[in-house]
Backbone:
């Protein structure tokens, strides 16, 4: 394997250059998509080389950014078993989404530039090894997403965009307070203010339990709003309903994962004692989100809103897995993040397509689409089945692993908790998907919507969904491809928690 | 050397699925021949591999053939993917692939008019075959669960094949799509339990491999209570898949699918999955005799419960569906009673009881095989009838025998066989089942009343079976010509009649297998998994001797003949008017049966209240309470008239300014505190 110098920096730079290039070169027709596509493919190739690197820690990069008045901020990047899947997921999704959005006609250069800008932020968040950089990148994802919703969204886009912005912004500011507290506390140990992960981690054993518990709470709040967990979730369905398909895909598939990533990366690594104190809160919020989200799905009339709520439900499973603080729990929580990334991307593409092709996503108005739009229906069925945890696909493996780790964690009368929540979650998930399919795909062809202009998938759309479906099946059949990366990291972090 | 390549049996149909899925429209018969080829290859491999195994060294020393590779690591637990072949797997492989082959051939005639939809049909049945073959060769529970669910998916897709069609004469499911949903959800309820059972097994044994879970030393080391709960949960999975009471109600609705699907999935193969699961898990089930009583009871009760609903149904496929439920109940009854004997035998070290128990196990598996043949035959026969007459309503048929000679004769053989007419296949296995059911009571092993009651249920079911099968046969093929008969096309094409004839041969003769070593082969599977046990049971001609020296055999023969005779009186000779017994369909019992004991209504009410009812509440909570609080909070912070819900444009800067100011102040405070105090 050829070693690429500055690989991690390139992973951030390539989409950044791509953003600018798309903005200026992509004025006409499909130019924007092509330019953005080229950059995203380069990015994908770069990201895939990571998979073949034997020792990921050799890739770490660090450049001094600010070093004055006892304050050190580095442009530090690194990748490990936790972040590699997220980086690869982001890199895979971007060209696929650009391909899907090939026919975006409204100011395509801005659209694709914003998508790449989101990728800059996402890569930054997953690669950052410095709290300041982490926070900056976190904010970088926020702003292009805000514009994507408010420029390209549906009728209530301004409301949704503002709600999205304020919710996640308030959350990230609370998180910022947590970060400052952490860094300054570390400074009292280290003697100088250093924002790098390494410096804080080195100082973290000296943090008092009280401090840990409080700051864990601040950061945790910031992260679960992003995931989002009940009861801080209501921004998500609104944002999704109004967001353009490409934006929805990025939002659900990779941006939500920033929250769960943050919990593992910061909350668990730096505040292991607090993690134990907060364990049952995490479990409760995870379970509540799983079941609450699933129930909310049943009541939805808008197909896309239903899928949005299903994201909440499935991210609840991620939090539950993290809360186990065990190797299996964390491994499969991360696998669930990856799985949900792939699956929700297809889900949102399908929903976006229905709205685009038929002019409505209102389930009661639809019906009998299987005959009229067979390819779309096949993808809808596949993604719904994948999402409800059909064995053989990646979602099942993750679900099985997380629920098993929960079972392992419980003892005595606590089993009642799993017995109360697990079946309800699984039955409801199957229920809302099958019911939605029954009403949209099957039965008599609807007469409430004019189907004469309805068209089936374009080739570009079918190919982009097909790629994702193939990956969903691939990782379902060979889950070790993914878990082999995560498991060592999970062991490492559980060792930290076990060490306190 | 075929044994090393048994993994091809699921893989080749999977390839067929992919090929048909992509290119089926460009092929003849929408890819039908590819599907047939896949099934044929699967059958040939099964045949050669089974022969190799049975004649090989492993079989001689009662060991299974196992191939495994690591598939998944959950924490410290390794989960494998592999192949586990013993005589039970061989038997399952053989009949599943053979019947699939027959039904695929039949489909060429039956689905011929479906034009473009054939591709979907053949792709899905090929995928189904993958699931079935994978299920029976799996080497561990999780792998089995994967294939188990793949079958469930295919069942779902194929029940909904004609999703726009409304069900004939049924109010339980509005259309095929809702029947499909019901099938998936009800079986999923069982599957969820199954999965929980797997959690316990994985937690206790640190592996899900059969070889590990069934090893006596490992079983002895685990907590017996946990093991009992695990077996109960696994049994719940079997109950869902094999449509036993109380999760039985999806199967009658599943008849909305094409008849070939009913024959393949909902009679011959997939619904046997539950029986196979219990048979496969016998080593852990026999650890607790009470679990076995439950298995027997669920089976025995379902047998009579389902048979009662077949008594007055007018839909030919539904009669067969209830009959399937009832026969599956027999299989569980045999496994439960046999397992009970075995469990007691193991506790007391009584080898005779263990042998008797093994005979019950044989009875259950044997009935499963015979049932696969005659029920596939009956369903395909009914498909031939429906194909010709264009209706499923038996009242509109009548007199079809003259127009459809082959169909009527083959179905007569099937009906005789299922009714237990002496020497036909159903006779042997049914009487073996009944004999086993009576054995615990005869030997005074406790639970006498339960087993006596179950035996009585079983023998009454035998009578009912004979009656409703011949009611069906006479209503369809004899008597005056019904309105549909007059428009009937006549006999079906050869692609349909040839499989009927072949299956009829098996329905006639497959029972004789028990006299020629089949019981020995099936018992050997128990020896494989319960290797530490000395299993000595009756085999071959001794079984025939047992059956014919047992007085109850003659009672059941008489009851069978009586049932057939009453069917003849009522529906052929018509000298007895059935209306006399049910006040012309007005009696309460009659209505109870047509309403299926109100199970559909109860299910609907529960799922509607627990599902949609709560969901509405959650939705309200989201919109009013949570968003209400958010809006209220933003009102309070930013001031009235500027609330979040009212924000349209332009206020973002205000918000940002507010929030940033607050944060800067906070950060300043934190810094000050830290620098002044040197940390918290």
Residues:
């Amino acid at each position: 394997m050829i070693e690429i110098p500055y690989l991690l920096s390139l992973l951030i730079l390539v989409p950044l250059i791509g953003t600018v290039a798309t903005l200026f070169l992509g004025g006409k027709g499909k130019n924007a998509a092509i330019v953005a596509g080229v950059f995203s493919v380069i990015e994908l190739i770069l990201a895939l080389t990571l998979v073949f690197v034997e020792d990921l820690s050799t890739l770490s990069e660090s450049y001094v950014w600010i070093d004055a008045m006892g304050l050190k901020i580095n442009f530090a990047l690194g990748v490990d078993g936790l972040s590699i899947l997220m980086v690869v997921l982001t890199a895979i999704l971007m060209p696929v989404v650009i391909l899907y959005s090939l026919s975006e006609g409204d100011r395509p250069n801005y659209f694709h530039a914003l998508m790449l800008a989101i990728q800059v932020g996402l890569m930054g968040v997953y690669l950052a090894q410095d709290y300041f950089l982490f926070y900056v990148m976190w904010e970088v994802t926020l702003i292009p997403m805000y514009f994507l919703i408010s420029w390209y969204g549906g009728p209530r886009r301004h409301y949704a965009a503002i709600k999205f912005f304020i919710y996640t912004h308030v959350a990230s500011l609370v998180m910022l307070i947590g970060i400052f507290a952490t860094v300054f506390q570390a400074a009292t140990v280290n003697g100088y203010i250093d924002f790098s992960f390494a410096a804080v981690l080195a100082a973290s054993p000296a943090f008092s339990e009280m401090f840990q518990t409080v700051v864990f709470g601040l950061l945790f709040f910031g992260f679960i709003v992003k995931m989002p967990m009940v009861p801080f979730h209501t921004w998500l369905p609104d944002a999704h309903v109004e967001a353009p398909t490409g934006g929805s895909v990025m939002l659900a598939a990779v941006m939500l994962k920033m929250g769960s990533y943050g919990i593992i990366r910061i909350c668990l690594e730096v505040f292991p004692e607090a993690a134990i104190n907060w364990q049952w809160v995490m479990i409760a919020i995870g379970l509540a989100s799983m079941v609450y989200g699933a129930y909310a799905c049943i009541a939805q009339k808008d197909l896309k809103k239903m899928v949005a709520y299903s994201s909440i439900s499935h991210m609840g499973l991620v939090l539950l897995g993290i809360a186990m603080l065990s190797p299996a729990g964390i491994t499969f929580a991360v696998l669930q993040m990856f799985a949900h990334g792939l699956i929700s991307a297809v889900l949102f593409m399908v929903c976006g397509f229905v709205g685009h092709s038929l002019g409505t996503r209102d389930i009661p108005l639809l019906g009998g689409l299987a005959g009229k739009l067979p390819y779309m229906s096949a993808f809808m069925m596949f993604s719904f089945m994948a999402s409800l945890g059909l064995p053989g696909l990646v979602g099942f493996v993750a679900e099985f692993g997380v629920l098993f780790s929960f079972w392992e964690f419980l003892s005595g009368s606590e089993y009642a908790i799993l017995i109360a929540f697990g079946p309800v979650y699984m039955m409801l998930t199957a229920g809302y998907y099958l019911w939605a399919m029954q009403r949209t795909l099957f039965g008599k062809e609807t007469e409430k919507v004019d189907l004469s202009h309805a068209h089936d998938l374009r080739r570009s759309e079918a190919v982009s969904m097909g790629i994702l479906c193939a990956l969903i099946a691939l990782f379902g059949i060979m889950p070790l491809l993914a878990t082999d990366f995560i498991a060592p990291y999970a062991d490492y972090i559980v060792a930290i928690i076990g060490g306190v | 050397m075929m044994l090393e390549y048994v993994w091809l049996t699921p893989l080749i149909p999977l390839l067929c699925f992919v090929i048909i899925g992509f290119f089926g429209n460009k092929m003849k018969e929408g890819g039908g021949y590819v599907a047939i080829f896949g099934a044929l290859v699967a059958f040939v491999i099964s045949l050669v591999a089974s022969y190799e195994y049975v004649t090989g060294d492993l079989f001689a020393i009662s060991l299974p053939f196992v191939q495994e590779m690591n598939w998944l690591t959950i924490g410290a637990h390794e989960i494998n993917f592999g192949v586990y072949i013993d005589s039970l797997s061989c038997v399952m492989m053989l009949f599943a692939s053979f019947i699939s082959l027959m039904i695929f051939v039949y489909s060429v005639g039956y689905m011929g008019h479906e034009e473009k939809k054939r591709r979907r049909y053949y792709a899905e049945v090929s995928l189904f075959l993958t699931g079935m073959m994978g299920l029976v060769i799996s080497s561990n529970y999780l792998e089995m669960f994967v294939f188990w669910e793949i079958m469930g998916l295919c069942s779902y897709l194929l029940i909904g094949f004609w999703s726009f069609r409304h069900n004939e004469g049924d109010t339980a499911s509005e259309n095929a799509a809702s029947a499909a949903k019901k099938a998936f959800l009800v079986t999923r309820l069982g599957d969820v339990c199954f999965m929980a059972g797997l959690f316990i097994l994985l937690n206790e044994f640190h592996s899900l491999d059969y070889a590990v879970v069934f090893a006596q030393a490992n079983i002895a080391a685990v907590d017996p209570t946990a093991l009992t709960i695990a077996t109960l949960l696994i049994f719940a999975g079997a109950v869902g898949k094999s449509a036993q009471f109380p999760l039985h109600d999806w199967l009658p609705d599943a008849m909305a699918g094409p008849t070939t699907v009913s024959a393949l999935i909902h009679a011959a193969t997939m619904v046997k999955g539950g029986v196979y699961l219990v048979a496969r898990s016998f080593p852990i089930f026999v650890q607790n005799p009470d679990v076995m009583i439950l298995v027997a009871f669920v089976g025995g009760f379902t047998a009579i419960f389902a048979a009662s609903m077949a008594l007055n149904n007018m839909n030919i496929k539904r009669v067969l569906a209830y009959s399937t439920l009832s026969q599956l109940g027999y299989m569980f009854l045999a496994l439960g009673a046999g397992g009970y004997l075995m469990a007691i035998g193991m506790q007391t070290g009584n080898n005779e009881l263990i042998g008797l128990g093994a005979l019950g196990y044989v009875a259950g598996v044997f009935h499963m095989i015979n049932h696969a043949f005659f029920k596939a035959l009956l369903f395909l026969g009914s498909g031939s009838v429906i194909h010709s007459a264009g209706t499923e309503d038996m009242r509109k048929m009548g007199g079809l025998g003259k127009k459809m000679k082959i169909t009527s004769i083959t179905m007569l053989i099937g009906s005789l066989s299922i009714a237990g007419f002496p020497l036909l296949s159903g006779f042997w296995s049914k009487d073996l089942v009944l004999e086993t059911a009576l054995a615990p009571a005869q030997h005074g092993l406790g639970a006498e009343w339960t087993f006596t009651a179950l035996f009585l249920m079983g023998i009454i079911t035998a009578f009912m079976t004979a009656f409703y099968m011949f009611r069906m046969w006479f209503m369809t093929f004899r008597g005056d010509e019904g309105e549909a008969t007059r428009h009937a096309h006549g006999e079906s094409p050869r692609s349909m009649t040839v499989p009927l004839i072949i299956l009829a041969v098996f329905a006639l003769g497959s029972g004789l297998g028990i006299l020629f070593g089949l019981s020995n082969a099936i018992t050997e599977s128990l020896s494989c998994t319960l290797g530490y046990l000395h299993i000595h049971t009756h085999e071959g001609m001794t079984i025939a001797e047992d059956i014919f020296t047992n007085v109850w055999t003659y009672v059941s023969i008489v009851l069978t003949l009586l049932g057939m005779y009453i069917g003849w009186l009522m529906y052929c000779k018509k000298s007895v008017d059935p209306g006399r017994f049910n006040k012309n369909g007005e009696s309460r019992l009659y209505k109870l049966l047509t309403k299926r004991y109100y199970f559909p209504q109860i299910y609907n009410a529960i799922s509607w209240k627990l599902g949609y009812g709560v969901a509405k509440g959650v939705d309200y909570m989201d919109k009013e309470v949570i968003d209400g609080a958010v809006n209220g909070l933003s009102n309070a912070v930013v001031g009235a008239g500027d609330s979040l819900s009212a924000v349209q444009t332009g206020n973002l800067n205000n918000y940002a300014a507010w929030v940033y100011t607050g944060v800067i102040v906070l950060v300043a405070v934190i810094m000050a505190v830290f620098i002044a105090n040197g940390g918290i």
Notes: Residues 278-500 of chain A form one domain.
